[in-house]
Backbone:
């Protein structure tokens, strides 16, 4: 079985659902259910013995110790993190607590437990740490995409906290021999995403005839990755990745934030036309946020060549699936973050 941390969040939920469907392997899902965790997203697994949900904090070492001893996972996939840049600017303490202190606690308890395993189990075990492209900083318009060897240059409290956890994971491998893997993904989108993020909030606001606020000039660039492709890549790294290595996961879909919103508007125009005008008429450029990175881009050549992984969805096909899912939910499965309706919204 696999222990998944943060498995009630957006990417974690999609990983749990798709992994059980694809492999049938049991999963223990450890999540403290913050605002972004939603057990309703895991409803398809209700009553399924292959999914064991445990409510708890990765910083709670006694709980982590008990879960490891009881379930003896062959691998840990560590998603649990505070992940929204705007929130990290407003209140960085929670990001340090979860992303740095929490990751340390998880690593330390895993190291102790793993160190006592029989030799064969020790060799088979993997600790996969899920990170972000934001640890690499910001690119200029003509700069080459981030490779795994790009220097770290985090520019937000969120990115800095993830960079710190990356370094802890690396240190536990080099100091203690813990068999770790690290992945850096670009911006994810798809079903079940919490509505403070760009795509679900734009859909929700558009359907409610509310403004679609975009930071600055709207020309900040992100590489977009459909969440199902990301989950497939994580399974590939877990099964075939080289211990101690880092793998970039990208969608090969660089788009400006304004292009993303305009694409959404065009799809909504076709599926749910407004009575007066187009959905794009609701777009409003608003004051930029502090320290806004201009461009992220991922070079995923390493995972493509070593593990034969490539995204199945292009931007248009993934966005179509995403819009169709949210429309099928009546707009959105859960309440939006009203504080952000009249403010800028970032993809991060």
Residues:
């Amino acid at each position: 079985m696999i222990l998944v941390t943060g498995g009630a969040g957006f990417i974690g939920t999609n990983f749990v659902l798709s992994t059980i469907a694809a492999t049938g392997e049991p999963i223990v899902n450890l999540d403290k259910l913050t605002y972004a965790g939603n057990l309703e997203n895991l409803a398809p697994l209700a009553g399924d013995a292959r999914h064991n949900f445990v409510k708890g904090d990765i910083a709670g070492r006694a709980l982590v110790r008990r879960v490891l001893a009881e379930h003896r996972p062959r691998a840990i996939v560590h998603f649990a993190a505070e992940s929204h840049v705007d929130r990290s600017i407003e209140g960085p303490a929670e990001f340090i607590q979860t992303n740095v202190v929490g990751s340390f606690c998880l690593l330390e308890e895993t190291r102790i437990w793993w160190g006592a395993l029989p030799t064969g189990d020790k060799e088979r075990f993997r600790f996969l740490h899920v990170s972000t492209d934001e640890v690499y900083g910001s690119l200029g318009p003509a700069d080459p995409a981030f490779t795994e060897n790009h220097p770290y240059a985090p520019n937000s409290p969120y990115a800095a906290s993830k960079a710190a956890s990356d370094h802890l994971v690396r240190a536990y491998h080099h100091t203690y021999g813990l068999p770790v893997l690290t992945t850096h993904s670009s911006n994810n989108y798809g079903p079940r995403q919490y509505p403070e993020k760009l795509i679900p909030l734009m859909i929700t606001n558009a359907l409610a005839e509310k403004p679609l606020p975009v930071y600055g000039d709207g020309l900040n660039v992100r590489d977009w990755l459909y969440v199902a492709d990301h989950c497939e890549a994580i399974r590939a790294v877990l099964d075939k990745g080289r211990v101690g290595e880092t793998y970039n996961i990208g969608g090969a879909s660089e788009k400006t934030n304004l292009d993303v919103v305009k694409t959404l508007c065009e799809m909504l125009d076709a599926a749910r036309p407004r009575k007066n005008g187009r959905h794009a008429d609701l777009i409003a450029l608003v004051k930029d946020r502090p320290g806004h990175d201009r461009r992220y881009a991922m070079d995923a050549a390493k995972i493509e060549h070593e593990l034969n992984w490539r995204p199945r969805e292009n931007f248009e096909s993934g966005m179509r699936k995403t819009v169709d899912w949210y429309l099928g939910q009546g707009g959105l499965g859960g309440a939006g973050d009203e504080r952000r309706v009249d403010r800028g919204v970032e993809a991060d």
About this structure: Residues 128 and 181 are 5 Å apart (CA to CA). Residues 93-115 form the longest helix (23 residues). The mean pLDDT is 94. The chain is about 40% helix and 15% strand.
